[in-house]
Amino acid sequence: MTERTRKEGRERGEEWWSTEIIEMRPGMIRLRGYPIEDLIGRVSFPAMIWLMLRGELPTEAQASLLGTALGAAVDHGPQAPLIAIARMAATCGVGINSAMASAINVLGDVHGGAGEQALGFFGDIAAAMDAGQSLEDAVADRVDRFFARSGYVPGLGHRFHPVDPRAPRLLELVREAARQGTVSGRFADIAEAVEAAVERRKGKRIPLNIDGATAVIYGELGFPPPLTRGLFVLSRSVGILAHAWEQSQYPDRNKGPLPREWLWAYEGTPERRLPEASEP
């Protein structure tokens, strides 16, 4: 029997959910060691996110760049499945928290996971460069590998925008942060080299999208890929909340995905009747 399993009573209970994030007793709250009253009014929300996830406070420039990425991805309209779900849920009379949860629960690999995939892809290229490969060779090898496997590269292209209007501005701010020494600019270099490699392969430019651009920022700031998805959830929750609240102010009830006069295409078995139903 280990020392841990021998412990009983209060000591065992206190260790059950051990954490390095928060210390709390009656009249005292400390986040990563900082008294909450010291943080309130002095530390921005992006800096609080950084502190909670990373254990240390960022510089103001780092917090600003993180906030920029979070702010850029807050919404993309009701045609996005999660926003449509939030609005439909609101018409069903559920609370705003339930509408938000319904929307967040559809964020997975296909819808919401591209940023994580992009940062994993960029990070793999960075690791190859650390192992001695040139930027061009590392990018070419991995672009070829991705095309062979899936036919696309994460973080590029958009089904609505020929050029995602958010991406160039985010890359511009990354370059500015690199000039100021806040970040290295390495992930921006990788993303632009990936764009160029894909253009050579396909014969047309497929620009960086919001997922790729925010992945650049999160990579520059040192966040691991899995946290990228969580950060996207935090960001898009702002839009989810806004849409759920707006929809809750309208009188619509049980509003489905299509107007009532538009019905779905039925492709099943033609009409058939039970024998007893056709008898006089």
Automatic annotation (TrEMBL):
The protein's matches in Gene3D superfamilies, at most eight in alphabetical order, are given as: Citrate Synthase, domain 1 (1.10.580.10), Cytochrome P450-Terp, domain 2 (1.10.230.10)
GO cellular component terms? cytosol
Highest taxon of the source? Bacteria
InterPro entries in the cross-refs: Citrate_synth-like_lrg_a-sub, Citrate_synth-like_sm_a-sub, Citrate_synthase, Citrate_synthase_sf
**Annotated pathway:** Carbohydrate metabolism; tricarboxylic acid cycle; isocitrate from oxaloacetate: step 1/2
Please list the GO biological process terms of this entry: carbohydrate metabolic process; tricarboxylic acid cycle
Record-linked SUPFAM superfamilies: Citrate synthase (SSF48256)
Q: Name the EC number(s).
A: 2.3.3.16
Q: State any single GO MF term.
A: citrate synthase activity
Q: Where are the coiled-coil regions? A: none
Matches recorded under Pfam families: Citrate_synt
Alphabetically ordered keywords of this record: Transferase
Record-stated family: Belongs to the citrate synthase family.
User: What PANTHER family does the database record attribute to this sequence?
Assistant: CITRATE SYNTHASE, CITRATE SYNTHASE, PEROXISOMAL
The identity of this protein, by name, is: citrate synthase (unknown stereospecificity)
